[in-house]
């Protein structure tokens, strides 16, 4: 895999993709002309690979840069288009989506970018179906993510999709970040930073719920544990997670099911019970809708003993 870094590349994004991919995968950073590359912080980094590195990468990341409103270099456009044409996954987060859009790779597709630049992006690229309020959009061979830290969500989603939940969770643990946030989650929350004892209680309730997925968890029980009325709990939950308790619990159950399928030999029926589904059939229905394959097929692809 390779990350294309333009002049003025955002140092944060350069470090982020390096933290996720470098040392774990065959990963390289490339640029238009090998040599010193100036970041948005005014620091120079040396990049030894040119655009020819994209010719063999199975995953190509277009990193955001400070000159994103300028048309991307023709050579970069050609290299990105060639990578996509031969079947590579092409991805970008934040204003890196401008590069993919400038290469015509987002035309007719759903895509996202940093919410702050959504109006400008939509005006410049009317052929793109912009989803301005989500963390990332997976269109199969083309994946886009929102701004800043949402780049980590997009990268972990790619790892999870291609290499399984256990690999993504291990990377997330090392980075001390949430292992999985759904792509449809809002880019920003009304109260993104915890504020006082109420938020501490909510955090404790979420942790308890993750440890008790095998139980039938109700909103009333969660609200009682948070020492809040049902209405107040639902409001605080949405502010903190951008989701409803039902959707959040479903995502947690599926996350746990993925990891159990990868790391244990438990029968699918036992996996279903352990994560809170009443039957293997219900797990299969939700799992297939999320992953595109049933649990047994997923296990054959990602079970650790098969690696």
UniProtKB/TrEMBL annotation:
Gene Ontology terms for molecular function: DNA-binding transcription factor activity; sequence-specific DNA binding
Chain segments annotated as coiled-coil in the UniProt record: none
Keyword check for Transcription: yes
Name of the protein in question: AraC family transcriptional regulator
UniProt KW DNA-binding keyword: yes
SMART domains cross-referenced by the UniProt entry: HTH_ARAC
Gene3D superfamilies according to UniProt: 3.40.50.880, Homeodomain-like
InterPro entries found in the cross-reference section: Class_I_gatase-like, DJ-1/PfpI, Homeodomain-like_sf, HTH_AraC, HTH_AraC-typ_CS, INH-QAR
Entries under Pfam families matching the protein: DJ-1_PfpI, HTH_18
Domain HTH araC/xylS-type: 203-301
Keyword terms, alphabetized: DNA-binding, Transcription, Transcription regulation
């Amino acid at each position: 895999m390779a990350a294309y870094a333009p002049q003025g590349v955002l140092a944060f994004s350069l470090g982020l993709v390096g933290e996720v991919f470098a040392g774990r995968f065959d990963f390289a950073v490339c640029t238009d002309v090998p040599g010193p590359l100036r970041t948005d912080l005014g620091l120079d980094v040396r990049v030894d690979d040119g655009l020819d590195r994209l010719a063999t990468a199975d995953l190509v990341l277009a990193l955001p840069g400070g000159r994103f409103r300028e048309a991307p270099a023709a050579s970069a456009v050609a290299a990105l288009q060639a990578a996509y044409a031969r079947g590579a996954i092409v991805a970008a987060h934040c204003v890196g989506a401008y590069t993919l859009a400038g290469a015509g790779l987002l035309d007719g597709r759903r895509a996202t970018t940093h919410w702050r630049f959504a109006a400008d992006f939509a005006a410049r690229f009317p052929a793109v179906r912009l989803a301005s309020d989500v963390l990332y959009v997976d269109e199969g061979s083309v994946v886009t993510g929102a701004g800043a830290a949402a780049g980590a969500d997009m990268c972990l989603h790619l790892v999870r999709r291609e290499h399984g939940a256990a690999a993504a969770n291990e990377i997330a643990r090392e980075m001390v970040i949430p292992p999985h946030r759904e792509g449809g989650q809002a880019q920003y929350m009304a109260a993104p930073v915890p504020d006082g004892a109420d938020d501490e209680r909510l955090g404790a309730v979420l942790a308890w719920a993750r440890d008790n997925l095998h139980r039938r968890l109700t909103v009333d029980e969660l609200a009682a544990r948070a020492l809040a009325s049902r209405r107040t709990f639902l409001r605080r939950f949405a502010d903190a997670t951008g989701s409803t308790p039902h959707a959040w619990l479903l995502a947690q159950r599926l996350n746990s099911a993925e990891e159990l399928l990868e790391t244990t030999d438990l029968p699918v029926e036992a996996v279903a019970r352990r994560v809170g589904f009443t039957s293997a059939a219900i797990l299969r229905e939700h799992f297939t809708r999320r992953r595109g394959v049933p649990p047994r097929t997923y296990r054959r692809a990602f079970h650790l003993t098969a690696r």
